[in-house]
């Protein structure tokens, strides 16, 4: 009990958000709108049996937050093998830096970004040599 089973990313423009996560992380999507009665795209984030969870991008029910405004909800952190390459993909897909790449000494590189919908998410690259 208590394990996170699913996540939802709220988006003003669902298809724009889908394109962003497809381009940056290679996620695939299935249209689950018929179950929710609103634009709701199921996010498949990896292969069955790999660590991690799947989720969805859904229609935001209120206006987008301002960049730099307070966070609401949880922040998802997404793993990568190459922080810098992922950061470049994020920029190319229309994302922006929320907090620059930072060393978690002896553990990893961590940074935070805004997606195209102004949601904040983390990127984490394990690296025991991070300083």
Mean pLDDT: 94
- Would you report the number of β strands? 8
Elements, N to C (H/E): EHEHEEEHEEE
Assembly state (oligomeric): single chain
Strand order of the largest sheet: 1-4-3-2
Secondary structure class reads alpha/beta
CATH superfamily: 2,3-Dihydroxybiphenyl 1,2-Dioxygenase, domain 1
Measured between the Cα atoms of the first and last residue, the distance is 36 Å
Write the CATH architecture name.
Answer: Roll
Task: Tell me what portion of residues adopts beta-strand conformation.
Answer: 35-45%
What is the share of helical residues? 10-25%
Q: Quickly count the domains.
A: 1
Q: Poorly predicted ranges (pLDDT <50, ≥5 residues)?
A: none
Calculate Rg over CA atoms: 15 Å
Number of helices: 3
Q: Characterize the largest beta sheet: strand count, sense, and whether it forms a barrel.
A: 4 strands, mixed
Short recap of the structure:
This protein has 131 residues and is an alpha/beta fold. It is built from 3 helices and 8 strands; from the N terminus they run βαβαβββαβββ.
What can you tell me about this protein's structure?
With 131 residues, the protein is α/β, with parallel strands linked by helices. It has a single domain, classed as 2,3-Dihydroxybiphenyl 1,2-Dioxygenase, domain 1 (Roll). It contains three helices and eight strands; from the N terminus they run βαβαβββαβββ. The strands form two sheets. The chain has a four-stranded mixed β-sheet with strand order 1-4-3-2. The protein has a four-stranded mixed β-sheet with strand order 5-8-7-6, covered by helices on one side. The protein is globular and about 50 Å long. The model has no long low-confidence stretch (mean pLDDT 94).
């Amino acid at each position: 009990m208590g394990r996170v089973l699913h996540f939802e990313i709220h988006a003003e423009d669902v298809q724009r958000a889908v394109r962003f996560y497809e381009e940056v992380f290679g996620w695939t999507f299935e249209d689950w709108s018929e179950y929710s009665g609103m634009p709701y795209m199921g996010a498949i984030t990896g292969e069955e049996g790999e660590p991690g969870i799947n989720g969805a991008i859904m229609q935001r029910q209120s206006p987008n937050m301002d960049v730099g405004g307070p966070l609401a909800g949880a922040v998802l952190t997404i793993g990568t093998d190459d922080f810098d390459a992922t950061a470049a993909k994020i920029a190319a897909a229309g994302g922006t830096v929320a907090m620059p790449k930072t060393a978690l000494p002896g553990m990893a590189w961590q940074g935070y970004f805004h997606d195209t919908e102004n949601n904040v998410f983390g990127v984490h690259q394990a690296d025991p040599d991070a300083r």
